[in-house]
Structure formats: C-alpha cells, structure tokens
Task: structure prediction
Amino acid sequence: MRTPIIAGNWKMNKTYSEAKVLLDEIKNLELSENVEAVVCPPFINLALAKEVLEGTNVKVGAQNAYHKDSGAYTGEVSVAFLKDLGIEYVILGHSERREYFHETDEDINEKVKAVLSHGLSPILCCGETLEEREAGKEKEKVKIQIDADFEGLEAKDFENIVIAYEPIWAIGTGKTASADDAEEMCGYIRELVREKFGEDAANKVRIQYGGSVKPQNVTEIMSKENIDGALVGGASLEAESFSKLVNY
Result:
C-alpha cells in the first residue's frame, strides 16, 4: 500500500511573520495519521517551519535546491543545507522553475540525483501546456520529461521518489483536469516507470496530481487507483483548507 501524500507548495507567499501564524494554526490541526502531510514554505521560513511543527506528523519540504553541496554559487541553497535542517522533501522541476528560471531537464536530473544522494525525497513535477494537450502531445511531453529527469537512476531510488503530474494549464487557473484525465496520465506515468525501472519501482513510486486542487475536488481525485496524493498551491495557504485536503 502506498501512503497518500498531500503536499502544500506555498510558492513565494507568506512573510516570516505570516508564516508563523499559519504554521501555529497548522500545528494545532487534527490531521489524519493515514495521510502524509507536507508543507513547503519559501527557504526563509524552513527553519521556522521545522521549529513550529516539531512533535507533529507534518513534514517540511523545500521548493528547490542546487545540486552542488557548497561553493561560490551566490543565492543558491544546497541539498546538504536542507538535510542538516531536517528537511525531508524537495520539489524539483516545477513548471514555474522551468518557464521563469529556464531550468532544463538536464539541470533537474542533476538536482534529482543530488537530493537522492543525501537521503531526501524529490517531488518531481511534470506536465504539459494547454497547446500541447490540444495538439494531442501531452503524453509525448511527459515522457520526454520523465526519461530525462530520471536518467541514470536505479529501480531502488523509486522508494523515495514522488512524481507530481501538473498540467501547466491547470496551475493557479481554477481549471482542473477531470479526475479521469488525471488518472489516465498518472497511470501512464506509472507505466513509464514500469517500462524503464521495473514492476517494483512502479508499484512503490507515489504519483500526485497538482493543478487547482481544493477541498471541493480532492476526494474525487484521491479516489483514483493511480493517484497517491496532491501537490497543492493556493488551497494550502489557509490552515482550514489544508486540513480538509489532508483529511479528505
């Protein structure tokens, strides 16, 4: 059985002061112990999140990392730094990183390997644009990303990998892929892992759906066989909403 995982990607939201208020609220929530809950605040709030959530079952993830451990890389944060802080997850390859900061699949592959080498779990994002979906190229796009981002990995790595399928046209737009569309693509991603890394890897890897997930649609999305969780943006920025997602 794969443990469901609901991860809140705060993106570039919540100042230190605002984050403390939200984290204090999350700390006092009654959250299902059968679902893995993760919050991913901006770098500046990670230490605060670890401190406030100490003793709860809510885990803390980062939104990005650099693949080098240390050195003259001004403005970057390494996986080694995150590990020392007790961070457990790192979101990689989000469409906003790919689009706005021009991260390539080669960049993301280096980061995936770095995260795994330090014993942390990558949440690897993949997904197509609206133009690609309308042209019937959504599976082609996702296959290119999965092949390149996981190049050089081994089957055993997938015990610690989470894949987040996020159709770009559904992120922050209010549009959501239908539960059936999301299930079809998540099933396809699992098949890609099976073909390249074997049955055991395919059975163990957890696959999330992301893209305008909210309390109103999370139950239907989570009912699907190949969907093991959700990567949530806006709906994770309020404690009550986050609670409803985790307790779906």
Q: What stands out?
A: The chain has eleven helices and eight strands. Strands lie at 5-9, 36-40, 58-62, 89-92, 121-126, 162-165, 206-210, 229-232.
